[in-house]
Design a protein that fits this description.
This protein has a single domain, classed as TIM Barrel. Helices cover 37% and strands 19% of the residues. It has 10 helices and 14 strands. Strands 5-2-1-12-11-10-9-6 form an 8-stranded parallel beta sheet, sandwiched between helices. A two-stranded antiparallel sheet has the order 3-4.
Protein backbone atom coordinates (compact mmCIF):
# COMPACT_ATOMS: atom_id res chain seq x y z
CA UNK A 1 0.00 0.00 0.00
CA UNK A 2 1.22 3.52 -0.82
CA UNK A 3 2.62 5.66 1.91
CA UNK A 4 0.11 8.00 3.49
CA UNK A 5 0.02 11.64 2.40
CA UNK A 6 -1.06 13.95 5.21
CA UNK A 7 -2.36 17.40 4.33
CA UNK A 8 -2.66 19.92 7.14
CA UNK A 9 -5.22 22.73 6.78
CA UNK A 10 -3.68 25.09 9.29
CA UNK A 11 -6.23 27.90 9.57
CA UNK A 12 -9.13 28.13 7.10
CA UNK A 13 -11.24 31.24 6.62
CA UNK A 14 -14.00 30.76 9.17
CA UNK A 15 -12.62 29.53 12.52
CA UNK A 16 -11.19 32.08 14.94
CA UNK A 17 -9.04 32.31 18.03
CA UNK A 18 -12.28 32.51 20.01
CA UNK A 19 -13.00 28.99 18.77
CA UNK A 20 -9.47 27.79 19.55
CA UNK A 21 -6.61 30.11 20.60
CA UNK A 22 -4.12 28.15 18.48
CA UNK A 23 -5.77 29.19 15.17
CA UNK A 24 -3.01 31.16 13.39
CA UNK A 25 -3.54 34.62 11.89
CA UNK A 26 -0.16 36.33 11.55
CA UNK A 27 2.60 35.39 9.13
CA UNK A 28 4.82 34.17 11.97
CA UNK A 29 1.97 32.14 13.47
CA UNK A 30 1.23 30.57 10.08
CA UNK A 31 4.87 29.66 9.53
CA UNK A 32 5.21 28.21 13.02
CA UNK A 33 2.04 26.12 12.74
CA UNK A 34 3.07 24.89 9.29
CA UNK A 35 6.56 23.97 10.49
CA UNK A 36 5.25 22.04 13.50
CA UNK A 37 2.75 20.18 11.31
CA UNK A 38 5.47 19.40 8.75
CA UNK A 39 7.83 18.06 11.42
CA UNK A 40 5.00 15.90 12.75
CA UNK A 41 4.43 14.33 9.32
CA UNK A 42 2.43 16.63 7.03
CA UNK A 43 3.78 16.81 3.48
CA UNK A 44 1.15 19.28 2.19
CA UNK A 45 0.23 22.53 3.92
CA UNK A 46 -3.18 23.89 2.89
CA UNK A 47 -3.17 27.67 3.25
CA UNK A 48 -5.84 30.34 3.58
CA UNK A 49 -4.34 33.81 3.95
CA UNK A 50 -5.46 36.07 6.78
CA UNK A 51 -4.55 39.48 8.02
CA UNK A 52 -3.23 39.91 11.54
CA UNK A 53 -6.73 40.53 12.91
CA UNK A 54 -7.95 37.23 11.43
CA UNK A 55 -9.77 38.69 8.41
CA UNK A 56 -9.56 36.25 5.47
CA UNK A 57 -8.00 37.58 2.27
CA UNK A 58 -6.89 36.36 -1.15
CA UNK A 59 -4.41 39.25 -1.42
CA UNK A 60 -1.48 37.98 -3.48
CA UNK A 61 1.15 39.87 -1.51
CA UNK A 62 -0.14 38.47 1.78
CA UNK A 63 -0.09 34.94 0.34
CA UNK A 64 3.45 35.42 -0.91
CA UNK A 65 4.68 36.53 2.49
CA UNK A 66 3.01 33.56 4.18
CA UNK A 67 4.33 31.07 1.61
CA UNK A 68 7.86 32.49 1.74
CA UNK A 69 7.83 32.30 5.54
CA UNK A 70 6.68 28.67 5.47
CA UNK A 71 9.21 27.61 2.84
CA UNK A 72 11.99 29.27 4.79
CA UNK A 73 11.21 26.88 7.66
CA UNK A 74 10.43 23.76 5.58
CA UNK A 75 11.73 24.26 2.02
CA UNK A 76 10.56 20.94 0.55
CA UNK A 77 6.96 21.02 1.79
CA UNK A 78 4.11 21.25 -0.76
CA UNK A 79 2.17 24.50 -0.40
CA UNK A 80 -1.49 24.26 -1.39
CA UNK A 81 -3.26 27.65 -1.42
CA UNK A 82 -7.03 27.79 -1.40
CA UNK A 83 -8.99 29.13 -4.36
CA UNK A 84 -12.13 28.83 -2.23
CA UNK A 85 -11.23 31.92 -0.25
CA UNK A 86 -14.18 32.98 1.87
CA UNK A 87 -17.93 33.24 1.23
CA UNK A 88 -18.78 36.19 -1.03
CA UNK A 89 -15.42 36.60 -2.76
CA UNK A 90 -15.46 37.03 -6.54
CA UNK A 91 -14.02 34.59 -9.06
CA UNK A 92 -11.11 36.89 -9.89
CA UNK A 93 -10.38 37.55 -6.22
CA UNK A 94 -10.28 33.86 -5.42
CA UNK A 95 -7.84 33.24 -8.29
CA UNK A 96 -5.18 35.70 -7.10
CA UNK A 97 -2.93 33.13 -5.36
CA UNK A 98 -2.57 31.27 -8.68
CA UNK A 99 -0.39 34.11 -9.95
CA UNK A 100 2.32 32.98 -7.54
CA UNK A 101 4.95 30.30 -8.14
CA UNK A 102 3.05 27.38 -6.61
CA UNK A 103 2.74 23.74 -7.58
CA UNK A 104 -0.68 22.83 -6.16
CA UNK A 105 -4.01 24.47 -5.26
CA UNK A 106 -7.54 23.47 -4.39
CA UNK A 107 -10.30 23.50 -7.00
CA UNK A 108 -13.83 23.45 -5.55
CA UNK A 109 -16.09 21.42 -7.79
CA UNK A 110 -19.62 22.51 -6.97
CA UNK A 111 -21.94 24.92 -5.19
CA UNK A 112 -22.95 24.18 -1.61
CA UNK A 113 -25.21 25.57 1.12
CA UNK A 114 -22.97 26.52 4.04
CA UNK A 115 -25.72 27.06 6.62
CA UNK A 116 -28.10 29.95 7.21
CA UNK A 117 -28.02 32.29 4.23
CA UNK A 118 -24.46 31.39 3.21
CA UNK A 119 -23.96 29.81 -0.20
CA UNK A 120 -20.54 28.72 -1.43
CA UNK A 121 -20.90 29.40 -5.15
CA UNK A 122 -18.93 27.40 -7.73
CA UNK A 123 -20.71 27.45 -11.08
CA UNK A 124 -19.74 25.10 -13.89
CA UNK A 125 -18.12 28.03 -15.70
CA UNK A 126 -16.21 28.97 -12.54
CA UNK A 127 -14.83 25.46 -12.30
CA UNK A 128 -13.85 25.35 -15.98
CA UNK A 129 -12.13 28.72 -15.66
CA UNK A 130 -10.18 27.72 -12.54
CA UNK A 131 -9.14 24.43 -14.16
CA UNK A 132 -7.97 26.23 -17.31
CA UNK A 133 -5.86 28.70 -15.35
CA UNK A 134 -4.31 25.92 -13.28
CA UNK A 135 -3.44 23.94 -16.39
CA UNK A 136 -1.90 26.98 -18.10
CA UNK A 137 0.25 27.67 -15.04
CA UNK A 138 1.15 24.01 -14.39
CA UNK A 139 -0.57 24.04 -11.01
CA UNK A 140 -1.79 20.65 -9.82
CA UNK A 141 -5.48 20.81 -8.77
CA UNK A 142 -6.90 19.04 -5.75
CA UNK A 143 -10.52 18.44 -6.72
CA UNK A 144 -12.60 19.28 -3.66
CA UNK A 145 -15.92 17.45 -3.73
CA UNK A 146 -18.55 17.86 -1.02
CA UNK A 147 -21.02 15.37 -2.50
CA UNK A 148 -21.48 12.84 -5.31
CA UNK A 149 -22.76 15.37 -7.87
CA UNK A 150 -19.46 17.22 -7.65
CA UNK A 151 -17.60 14.05 -8.64
CA UNK A 152 -19.98 13.53 -11.56
CA UNK A 153 -19.27 17.08 -12.77
CA UNK A 154 -15.51 16.50 -12.57
CA UNK A 155 -15.77 13.29 -14.58
CA UNK A 156 -17.95 14.98 -17.20
CA UNK A 157 -15.49 17.87 -17.56
CA UNK A 158 -12.58 15.44 -17.63
CA UNK A 159 -14.21 13.52 -20.49
CA UNK A 160 -14.56 16.81 -22.37
CA UNK A 161 -10.87 17.57 -21.84
CA UNK A 162 -11.56 20.51 -19.51
CA UNK A 163 -10.13 18.91 -16.37
CA UNK A 164 -6.93 17.02 -16.93
CA UNK A 165 -5.35 13.89 -15.44
CA UNK A 166 -3.92 12.85 -13.09
CA UNK A 167 -7.07 13.27 -11.01
CA UNK A 168 -6.72 13.78 -7.26
CA UNK A 169 -9.94 14.16 -5.30
CA UNK A 170 -10.56 15.54 -1.84
CA UNK A 171 -13.78 14.30 -0.24
CA UNK A 172 -14.87 17.03 2.17
CA UNK A 173 -17.52 15.44 4.36
CA UNK A 174 -19.54 16.65 7.31
CA UNK A 175 -20.06 20.23 6.11
CA UNK A 176 -23.45 21.70 6.96
CA UNK A 177 -25.31 21.46 3.63
CA UNK A 178 -23.09 18.75 2.15
CA UNK A 179 -22.87 15.00 2.60
CA UNK A 180 -22.43 13.66 6.10
CA UNK A 181 -19.28 11.78 7.07
CA UNK A 182 -20.55 8.29 7.80
CA UNK A 183 -18.76 5.22 6.45
CA UNK A 184 -21.45 4.72 3.79
CA UNK A 185 -20.80 8.26 2.50
CA UNK A 186 -17.05 7.72 2.26
CA UNK A 187 -17.45 4.38 0.50
CA UNK A 188 -19.98 5.84 -1.96
CA UNK A 189 -17.58 8.59 -2.99
CA UNK A 190 -14.50 6.35 -3.04
CA UNK A 191 -16.25 3.89 -5.34
CA UNK A 192 -17.42 6.71 -7.66
CA UNK A 193 -14.00 7.86 -8.86
CA UNK A 194 -11.78 6.20 -11.50
CA UNK A 195 -9.58 3.36 -10.29
CA UNK A 196 -6.42 5.23 -11.33
CA UNK A 197 -7.40 8.41 -9.43
CA UNK A 198 -6.08 9.24 -5.97
CA UNK A 199 -8.07 10.71 -3.12
CA UNK A 200 -7.84 12.29 0.29
CA UNK A 201 -10.54 12.74 2.91
CA UNK A 202 -11.24 15.85 4.99
CA UNK A 203 -13.72 15.13 7.75
CA UNK A 204 -15.25 18.18 9.39
CA UNK A 205 -15.51 18.31 13.17
CA UNK A 206 -16.36 14.96 14.74
CA UNK A 207 -15.88 13.21 11.41
CA UNK A 208 -12.19 14.07 11.06
CA UNK A 209 -10.60 11.04 12.68
CA UNK A 210 -13.22 8.36 11.92
CA UNK A 211 -12.89 9.28 8.23
CA UNK A 212 -9.11 9.47 8.48
CA UNK A 213 -9.09 5.92 9.82
CA UNK A 214 -11.32 4.72 6.98
CA UNK A 215 -9.18 6.38 4.34
CA UNK A 216 -5.99 4.99 5.83
CA UNK A 217 -7.45 1.47 5.80
CA UNK A 218 -8.66 1.75 2.20
CA UNK A 219 -5.43 3.15 0.78
CA UNK A 220 -6.45 6.80 0.56
CA UNK A 221 -4.90 9.88 2.10
CA UNK A 222 -6.01 12.28 4.82
CA UNK A 223 -6.40 15.95 5.64
CA UNK A 224 -6.45 17.20 9.21
CA UNK A 225 -6.04 20.64 10.75
CA UNK A 226 -7.68 23.43 12.69
CA UNK A 227 -9.61 24.57 9.61
CA UNK A 228 -11.63 21.38 9.80
CA UNK A 229 -11.60 20.36 13.45
CA UNK A 230 -10.69 22.24 16.63
CA UNK A 231 -10.54 19.25 18.98
CA UNK A 232 -8.06 16.45 19.61
CA UNK A 233 -10.79 14.53 21.39
CA UNK A 234 -14.34 15.27 22.51
CA UNK A 235 -14.39 18.43 24.62
CA UNK A 236 -10.61 18.99 24.47
CA UNK A 237 -9.11 21.62 22.19
CA UNK A 238 -6.17 20.59 20.02
CA UNK A 239 -3.10 22.54 21.11
CA UNK A 240 -2.20 23.43 17.55
CA UNK A 241 -2.15 21.60 14.23
CA UNK A 242 0.80 19.46 15.26
CA UNK A 243 -1.37 17.48 17.67
CA UNK A 244 -3.88 16.65 14.92
CA UNK A 245 -1.12 15.54 12.52
CA UNK A 246 0.50 13.38 15.20
CA UNK A 247 -2.80 11.63 15.83
CA UNK A 248 -3.15 10.85 12.11
CA UNK A 249 0.42 9.52 12.07
CA UNK A 250 -0.33 7.24 15.02
CA UNK A 251 -3.42 5.91 13.24
CA UNK A 252 -1.39 5.24 10.09
CA UNK A 253 1.32 3.36 11.98
CA UNK A 254 -1.33 1.29 13.77
CA UNK A 255 -2.59 0.23 10.32
CA UNK A 256 0.89 -0.53 9.03
CA UNK A 257 1.24 2.48 6.72
CA UNK A 258 4.27 4.70 6.58
CA UNK A 259 4.11 8.46 6.10
CA UNK A 260 5.03 10.06 2.76
CA UNK A 261 7.63 12.79 2.58
CA UNK A 262 6.81 15.78 0.36
CA UNK A 263 8.86 14.34 -2.53
CA UNK A 264 7.16 10.96 -2.14
CA UNK A 265 3.79 12.73 -2.13
CA UNK A 266 4.69 14.45 -5.41
CA UNK A 267 5.40 11.05 -6.99
CA UNK A 268 2.26 9.39 -5.62
CA UNK A 269 0.02 12.17 -6.89
CA UNK A 270 1.85 12.67 -10.18
CA UNK A 271 2.45 16.36 -9.62
CA UNK A 272 5.52 16.33 -11.85
CA UNK A 273 3.60 14.52 -14.59
CA UNK A 274 0.94 17.21 -14.57
CA UNK A 275 3.57 19.76 -15.61
CA UNK A 276 4.54 17.96 -18.81
Amino acid sequence: MNKLIITCAITGAEVTKKDNPYVPYTIDEMADEAYRAYKAGASIIHVHARYDDGTPTQDMDRYKKIIDAILKRCPDVIIQPSTGGAIGMSRDERLLPLKLDIEMATLDCGTLNFGGDQIFVNTENDIIHYAKVMKERHIFPELECFEKGHIDLVLRLHKKGLIHAPLHFSFVLGVNGGMAGEERDFLFLKDSIPKDATYSVAGIGKYEFPLAELSIRHGGHVRVGLEDNLYIEKGKHAEGNEALVRKAVQMAHASGRDIATPDEARKILGIGGYKT
